[in-house]
Design brief:
Blueprint lengths: L11 H9 L4 E3 L6 H4 L7 H21 L14 E3 L3 H5 L6 E6 L10 H19 L15 H7 L3 E6 L2 H13 L2 E6 L5 H8 L4 E4 L4 H12 L5 E4 L5 H20 L10 E6 L4 H14 L3 E8 L4 H6 L28 H7 L5 E5 L1 H15 L13 H5 L4 H5 L8 E6 L7 H14 L2
Parallel strand pairs: 3-11, 4-5, 4-7, 5-6, 8-9, 8-11, 9-10
Antiparallel strand pairs: 1-10, 2-3
Length: 436
């Protein structure tokens, strides 16, 4: 049984800040070494390698389904974008390298959800194709892009509950293969995301409730149907593994840049967090690749700190239990309760969790565009507050015997390239009004 943080004498000011909706930082006192943690988990390195192999096998088929992937031979990946003059950008002393991991620009779905969501749909399509005799083990998966395959897939139903971006990735991928597809959207979902899905023939079911209620409705609709598959964002290892493959791709990118990552030259990663699947999968993957040389921090809206609330408790808790309303402009992160599956896998791997105010998201969104030309949505800006929230007091460096100048900082931007122009202008105007 986990020990409640208050039992350890943790600063009660953190708990008070959470209840008040004030931005704060919670260091993880449960953080352990990878040699102690990874062997105890239900997922292993061979699962990560198998997931990477599956995506590689699907690449030629994806290049057929999506012309925008022809130039990458069907590989869905985002660039590493250097952040020059990092210290001036963050208005804090941030020596060392700094990069944006630009998942907001991922093709097909325009968000980090293109990793886990698309992976799970592909895994299901492979399963259906094998069971239906469309392919045999080891066959070229381009056979699953034919008219015959589409006609077969049309007899099967894929569903998901989402605040927006996961629904986009599932809807686009499943409909492209020919599956009947339903996306249950919470009241936080943006209208343009619903429209984009409907334009692809996806059924969008709107709910008055929050993310959890949309997921529950989708789960109930699909249960008991042998020809239906529900992508359960709260409890899916396939999603988790799809996100984790990003760690292998990232290592290749750093290797190409001749940037070494080891205990003496650590990597700090700042990941926006909703229910936890994407940041959790990436954290686990990075720990498999870099071990204790990587330090991962989750970033959450102050109104929706689902993972922080879970870290503060010995049992599952909701942000509503803390008197919070789960209302934030960071719609992709508007989640009231963390995934218990993901929490169990990463509770001793993450270095900490911090929260941000909505106004901070809009300010950083504008500053990033001015510095780099990148356009992101508010939720994607959450990680950019990491240095101010975590490293303002150099204590973390000292506790882990890290030389600040030796570190590489990576900020994962999670969505935004498909945001309509008029919507982005609204984001920009709000952020610009908040800057000096």
């Amino acid at each position: 049984m986990l020990t409640d943080v208050s039992d350890n004498g943790r600063n009660e000011e953190i708990d008070a800040a959470v209840r008040d909706g004030r931005p704060t930082f919670l260091p993880n006192l449960r953080l352990s070494t990878t040699t102690d943690v990874l062997p105890t988990l239900a997922v292993r390195r061979n699962d990560l390698d198998a997931a990477a192999d599956r995506l590689a096998g699907w690449a030629p088929a994806l290049a057929i389904l999506f012309p925008e992937l022809e130039s990458s031979a069907g590989v869905i990946e985002s660039p590493l974008v250097p952040l020059p003059s990092a210290s001036s950008f963050f208005e804090a002393d941030l020596p060392g390298n700094a990069f944006i991991k630009a998942d907001h620009a991922l093709p097909i779905a325009g968000s980090i959800k293109a990793r886990g969501g698309i992976y799970e749909v592909l895994a299901y399509a492979e399963k259906v194709g094998l069971a239906g005799g469309l392919i045999r083990p080891g066959d070229d998966l381009r056979a699953l892009t034919t008219r015959k395959a589409r006609a077969h897939f049309a007899n099967f139903h894929v569903g998901v509950g989402s605040t927006g971006n996961l629904g986009l990735s599932i809807g686009v991928m499943a409909s492209a293969l020919g599956f009947k597809t339903t996306v249950h959207m919470s009241n936080d979902a943006k209208e343009w995301k619903k429209t984009r899905l409907r334009n692809r023939g996806v059924e969008v079911v709107e709910h008055l409730g929050d993310y959890a209620k949309a997921v529950a409705a989708g789960r109930d609709q699909m249960s008991g149907d042998p020809r239906a598959h529900f992508v359960d964002d709260e409890n899916s290892l396939d999603l988790f593994l799809g996100y984790a493959v990003a760690a292998l791709r990232l290592k290749n990118q750093f290797d190409d840049l001749e940037i070494a990552i080891d205990v003496q030259r650590p990597l700090f990663v700042y990941l926006p967090c909703g229910v936890g699947g994407a940041p959790g999968g990436i954290t686990w993957g990075l720990k498999q690749v870099y071990g204790d040389a990587v330090h991962c921090f989750f970033a959450e809206p102050a109104a929706s700190p689902a993972f922080m609330v879970r870290m503060l408790s010995s049992e599952p808790r909701s942000v509503y239990d803390y008197g919070l309303d789960n209302r934030t402009e960071a719609d992709g992160l508007a989640v009231a309760q963390a995934s218990e599956l993901v929490f169990g896998l990463v509770e001793r791997l993450i270095s900490g969790v911090f929260t941000v105010a909505d106004d901070e998201l809009f300010r950083m969104l504008v500053r990033l565009e001015r510095a780099t030309g990148l356009r992101i949505e508010p939720s994607a800006a959450a990680g950019l507050l990491g240095p101010a929230r975590i490293l303002g007091g150099i204590k973390y460096y000292g506790e882990h015997e890290i030389s600040p100048a030796s570190a590489t900082h990576l900020f994962w931007t999670t969505g935004g390239s498909f945001v309509p122009e008029e919507e982005y202008i609204r984001f920009h105007e709000r952020g610009a009004a908040l800057l000096p």
